[in-house]
Amino acid sequence: MNATRYGDSGVDLTRAESAKERIAGLIARVRTANALGRIGGFGGMVRLPEGLTRPVLVMSTDGVGTKVLVATAAGRFTTVGEDLVNHSVNDILVHGARPVAFLDYLAGAALPEERIEAIVAGVARGCERHRMDLAGGETAEMPGLYRPGDFDLAGTIVGVVDEAKAIHGTAIQAGHLLIGYQSTGLHTNGYSLARRIVFEEQHLELQDPLGETGTSVADALLAVHRSYYDAVAPILDRVSGLAHITGGGIPGNLVRVLPEGVEAVIDSTSWALPPLFRYLGEAGAVPLAEMRQVFNLGVGFIAVAPAEAVEAIQQAAGRAEVPSWVLGTVRKGTRGVRFE
Question: How far apart are CA 236 and CA 241, in angstroms?
Answer without folding.
Answer: 9
